[in-house]
């Protein structure tokens, strides 16, 4: 209840006031800017966006309802915010259905480790709750926003689909689609898009996304395309024509503007508001206040990197929270809050005890230097990426096609 009120109070247009002030972070689907070495201030973002912090009560409830240990992304605050997750848990408690929806804008061939975060977590959610999953590839969005041809965006989207499949999604429970194809295959998807478009004004999207008079009309209309998969009417084969199956969306917090709009329009078109789980941003190797970009190969670790590239990049570029000299370091200790190797270990080192030992006893105390953290991280990422690359080799065109064929999944509705 408190959550609904907070949402109503927060303006849909969140960047216009707060973020223009110099000390505020700027966050929208296309730009994330923070001037601090520790990155975006997420507590402030929760207030500004009008969402709710993921607290111990919610984490404990997930544990008691599912009987599974909550993913470390939850316990470590990597997924830190939500909208109406308790509603989803109520459904699960009553054995009522819901589904998962997430997506990717296929702008570059190479996905980096940061792109994995929402997908790895979505996979865990799907395995934990055993529900259908739809994954939207917004080839149209990237065509509209980037300098890229339709042919190129199609090729890149297919490569990305194969990367996503190689994370190990269950074909019988997962539908992956490219917007350009699916609007043609499924009139109900297009109908849902146009229904949303009819009920959102230019003024509203201007406020939410900052569109101006010189933005193409394609951009202005696009938010409805990302909103539509939040409604089960977009997937008549999966949901047997049911239009009211509730949806849960795991995504990075920068995607929230799309879903604020979606939640706002939902009651006006007699649909359910989707629930959300938001993740923090994945920092660039050079530090949380520098940008990670697919066009800057040294800003992150890519799924295509070789073991040697992983090692060299981390050793050379991972921003250190250590002190200037060894003597000073031994005396004052390292700063985990800005040390990128530690930050990455928080994402990828599963063992809680080991992580805590590294933080407290080893690094913060000054006993060990950044090089030790780097070594640990290199091994973990070489293994993770090696495993994904091995599976990626087994993903054929036919498999991708099978995932992308509109069909009923292994759930009856
Ligand atoms: N716009 C997102 C991107 O550029 C892709 C996307 C589409 C998405 N639908 C989504 C992301 C749902 C999260 C959840 O990457």
TrEMBL record:
Any one GO MF annotation of this record: tryptophan-tRNA ligase activity
Signal peptide: none
EC number: 6.1.1.2
Compartments (UniProt record): Cytoplasm
Keyword line: Aminoacyl-tRNA synthetase, ATP-binding, Cytoplasm, Ligase, Nucleotide-binding, Protein biosynthesis
GO biological process, one term: tryptophanyl-tRNA aminoacylation
One GO cellular component, as annotated: cytoplasm
Family statement: Belongs to the class-I aminoacyl-tRNA synthetase family.
Protein name: Tryptophan--tRNA ligase, cytoplasmic
Gene source species: Elysia chlorotica (Eastern emerald elysia)
